[in-house]
Hints:
41% of the residues lie in helices and 18% in strands. By secondary structure, it is α+β, with helices and mostly antiparallel strands. The protein has 2 domains: 2-93; 111-338, Bira Bifunctional Protein, Domain 2 (BirA Bifunctional Protein, domain 2, 2-Layer Sandwich), CATH 3.30.930. The strands form 2 sheets. Strands 1-4-5-9-8-7-6 form a 7-stranded mixed β-sheet, with helices on both faces. A two-stranded antiparallel sheet has the order 2-3. Helix 1 runs antiparallel to helix 2 (23-34), helix 2 runs antiparallel to helix 4 and helix 5 packs across helix 10 (314-322). The protein is rod-shaped, with a radius of gyration of 44 Å. Bound molecules: 3,4-dihydroxyphenylalanine. The site of 3,4-dihydroxyphenylalanine (DAH) has 12 residues, from strand 7, strand 8 and strand 9.
Amino acid sequence: MLDESIQELAAGALQRIAMAGTAEELEAVRVEVLGRKGGALAEISKGMGKLSPDERKRIGAVLNQAKQEIETALDARKATFEAVALAAKLDSEWLDLTVPAPGPRRGHLHPITRIQRELEDLFVSLGFAVLDGPEVEDEYHNFDALNIPADHPARDMQDTFWLSGGNLLRTHTSPVQVRGMERLKLPLRMIAPGRVFRNESVDASHEHTFYQLEGMMIDRNVSVAHLLYFMKTLLTAVFQRDVTVRLRPGYFPFVEPGFELDIQCLICGGPGCPVCKQSGWVELLPCGLVNPHVLRQSGIDPDEFGGFAFGLGLTRLVMMRYSIDDIRQLQGGDLRFLEQF
Ligand code: DAH
């Protein structure tokens, strides 16, 4: 009688174990059947005290065997579940250690730095010295020595960041001309690339910080023809082709005559297009023959020496070269933009 119910119980348990789909279902069977408190087999063994010693021994053996069978089945099923789980985990976490590593991410030079270095190389090959000047300038070098005295309306041409103590953030690279005239022996040829600052409201075509390259040559008998020759050489190198240029009068207190140099539009070649605003020409750089006042101010005799000077907007040049229509992108620090160059 007792044998039968034990065997039935075991058979039922083994069937449930075989059908279990999860580790939780297995655990439920274990608790229900083998649990020490309230488990079905434990309940049965409780009643064994009433049996005769012989019967107790026999039923005990049956009970033990049933218990062992169930335990074995539980362990085996549990092992299968674990193997499946492990296989899935290995599969999802698999790493191919033979794949080459991606390697360090390399940066590159900013497009403004690149054009600056190109122009430095070019001018060095033409016998020009490359000069550096301070970004925090004094009023004398930024204005007075360039023929822009304090009461001169030309001071308003450039919105200035004034610093306490009377210094300022240089508004152009022209003060380095003055430092060049003070320092170099004549005749002289120099360029001065660098950062300049204007107190401007920022928009697509205005930045408070941008880059210029100043150039100056002083010698005997320097004429507009020399200026044109060097400017054409410069522009041919930058744009990698012949460019047609023209001069228009332009006013800058430190040159006389002063010019705006235009190039024939590289997009349409002359007839007019949106880039040149239908004019066929694009304003590129201001320049001129050095004003005698400026020479004299730096101790150079204008009757013996003359020269030309020019101020190239490096930022603007980069924008033209790569058709960038918003100046803010250049110093914006967005790598997605910079990685294009
Ligand atoms: N310094 C001027 C500016 O930033 C540009 C300039 C004009 C420079 C004429 C020159 C020059 O050397 O000759 O507006």
